[in-house]
Amino acid sequence: MSDAGPGEILLSVEEVSLSFGGVKAIRDVSFDIKKGEIRAIIGPNGAGKTSMLNVINGFYHPQRGRIAFRGETRPAMKPHEAAAHGIARTFQNVALFKGMSTLDNIMAGRTLRMKRGLFWQALRHGPALAEEIEHRRFCEGIVDFLEIEAIRKTAVGSLPYGLQKRVELGRALAMEPDLLLLDEPMAGMNLEEKEDMCRFILDVNHQFGATIALIEHDMGVVMDLADRVVVMEYGRKIADGTPDEVKRDKSVIDAYLGVAH
Amino acid sequence: MVAIRNAPGGTDLALPPRREGPGEGEDTFAKLLRRHALLRGSRPAFRHKDLGIWRTWSWAEVYAQTRALAQGLAALGLSHGDRIAIVGANKPRLYWTMAAAQMLGAIPLPVYADAVADEMAYVLGHAEVSLIVAQDQEQVDKILSIGGRLPNLTRILYDEERGLGDYRDARLGSLEAAIAAGEAALGDPAVGAALDARIEAGRGADPSVILYTSGTTGRSKGVVLSGERCIAAARDTVAFDGLTDRDEVLAYLPLAWVGDHYLNYAQGFVAGFCMACPESADTAPDDLREIGPTFHFAPPRVFEALLTRVMIRMEDAGAIKRAMFRHFLAVAKKWGEKIGNGEPVPLMARAHYALGDVLVYGPLKNVLGFTNVRIAYTAGEAIGADLFAFYRSLGLNLKQLYGQTEAFLYVTAQADGAVRSDAVGPPAPHVELRIAADGEVQFKSPGMFLGYYREPEKTAEALTADGFVKTGDAGYIEPDGQLKIVDRANDVGRLASGQLFAPKYIENKLKFFPNIKEAVAIGQGRDHVVAMLNIELASVGNWAERNNVSYGSYQELAGHPLVYAMIEAHVDEVNRALAGDPAMAGAQIKRFLILPKELEADDGELTRTQKVRRGFIAERYSSLVDGLNDGSAMASISAEITYEDGRKGVLNGSARIVEMTLHPAPSPRRERAA
């Protein structure tokens, strides 16, 4: 899928700035994401983390700066184009089809990979059926992987939050993305759910070979999970490096613990 | 001593004499497997739902796979008498591992998969296992974390590779690779012949399996069972219940529990029926519905949870459905059991019941997966009369049995048509049962254990001089020959006043309420009986939702004043019932509290089979017990809790103590009792 080899830069953000009217959400931020790594973006509330993710997947278009994906500088593109290029994401507030079953939600993630049109799919016959079976097999692999067999046919709206998050991850995985963007995958979870989610993220990274960029509030989680961390504050990048480097960084400590001015 | 040989009244005379005809002489599970591969090679033997689809293996395929695995294990050094541990859920390959080990004369030792690493270390270390077959990464992690305490361990094989790709431990290998290696080696006819000779040379008197007890009162002990005895016992009950190779079970009980090894593995290998393995523990209810087993076992707790779920869902149903459900449930309550027992019932009532079967009972049984069930058993603890009657009145042939790991399960079992909720049935076929002078139940059975592994002194303790096994349970024989279990013999005690105190009896009465999940009654040598309760989150949570009671956690809900009021009403009802029984009137519950924490096996409060470890709990929550006894209004506790991954934390909580008004015992009876 990707032409970039391991360790090569998959995506680079170059001097990106984004503002809404007078509010500067992102100011002149640059960093890169290497293939195969887990890259975390952390920072206090309102630091511009989610805006950064929205810029990467084409939901926001920055006023200045460029984003290069697999070495190509991208023109302003729409989220569905980003998806077609192999960027999938989950959301801070779960954004699933609440009335549909877990399996249908994950199958929805395969839509971009289905070749037959609506007509054939509605008939569910011949080649469309064969295609559906093939995609269903793939989705069942994800169901197995995320250990959500028991809720396969449950409407996601009735599931607890932690499970909805897992289904959302499943739907993103169904796209077989090159780059997976996770917006606070562990927000609102209890300790056990968090640990489960950590294991899934690591397994996704290992087994599906997906490059992951994630936003997370919980510092402890990030330090265990990420290969490299970008720290943002008030729209600026204040640190970038391995968890250990970042942890020792004075400006990071100040941003998180507060500093006497 | 009252000795009873089989059942009084000659109930066992109706049983056919044990046949030892051709094809009935197999004395090991490996030979039974070989026989089924020959006799019914194309019949289904195992099913497993994987990636959403049921896969089936025939007896011939299972035999071939098991042989290959046996050869693979032999190549890894497993030989006669070695112990091989099996850690995981009900997966076909884990069952085949047991059979493969048995082909070599090695002894499989299933371990509770949800045990924390420490518990596992004791069992694995005590049994000195040389090889472990683990289901997945989770189990492998646990084993590696205790690897230093297992000096004899040479290999760890896993069934599911996921997440294990970059593990570098030299002892690790995959089960699949072992099967493939065995398969390749068996390409040489000489190797095949040598393996066949090993199967043939297997002796029924040798240990076939070691099952560790769950340890209600202390450390678990390894119960050694021989092949011939296991098979003899299973033959008896297969005949007793008329099981054939057309039957099917859902194998969802823990591998390490005697119930699974007996009801599914041993009976399946004797009768040649198909064992279906669920997709995962959580999907078992759905898998049950899809498979539609004909033979089913569930502990009372599971039947109760099912009923709770049905009731909760019915409350969400429309008014017409609710009315219909209520109406026909009343009809079933009145006539269902009578029809099931073949008693005379008016024709109109039969018609009414038949209509109910079409409209309610049939669909309900279908949803629960009970449509095809011919025989269902429950055991493990007392089952509430109402709960038992509910399932029976729907037309489910639910019966009770009483058993022990040391007996290889069956000690008593109820025959079709002679079922009651308050007793556990007459002795099973070929079982000798007696009540000792002190009221203890003792037995000799076809499946009786050889002894506790490496603990001859404990084996001697468990046996009487004339070779009966002491169960540790107190009970008596009813006039109709059925055994009635009162309590663990050691638990029955007296209050300071000399009043008889049977904690389990009281706890069971409390637990019959769907809102009460666990109960611990304490009173030995004290002035009063006090109780600590756990609420059932499913039903109380549903009630809370309906009544706009908001809560964030178990702890918060457990402390809610309205919940306390509800539980108080339940306790009062139990007291009223106790007051009506002259022997128990003085053992009413004086004070109770709702524990701020759910009792957990991970914290050692329950056994792996979910039985309360009363002694441990009384010690751990001693501050609460003291509060209950000194009459304070609140008691607080700080207890260590274990997270799922084995890490520890501390829970701080407090609980309100409620003082009950005791009911007076009916005066004429009290005089009699005194």
Summarize the structure.
Chain A is of the alpha/beta class and about 260 residues long. Chain A is built from ten helices and ten strands.
Can you walk through the features of this model?
The complex is a heterodimer of chains A (261) and B (674). Chain A is an alpha/beta fold and 261 residues long. Helices cover 38% and strands 24% of the residues of chain A. Chain A has 2 domains: 1-86 and 177-261, Rossmann fold (3-Layer(aba) Sandwich); 98-175, no CATH class. Chain A has helices at 49-56, 79-84, 102-108, 118-123, 126-145, 161-174, 191-208, 219-225, 243-248, 250-257; strands at residues 9-20, 23-34, 38-42, 64-69, 72-73, 87-90, 179-183, 211-215, 228-233, 236-241. The longest helix of chain A has 20 residues, at 126-145. The model of chain A has no long low-confidence stretch (mean pLDDT 86). With 674 residues, chain B is α/β, with parallel strands linked by helices. In chain B, helix 8 (227-240) packs across helix 9. Chain B is globular, with a radius of gyration of 26 Å. At the A-B interface, helix 5 and helix 7 of A face loops of B.
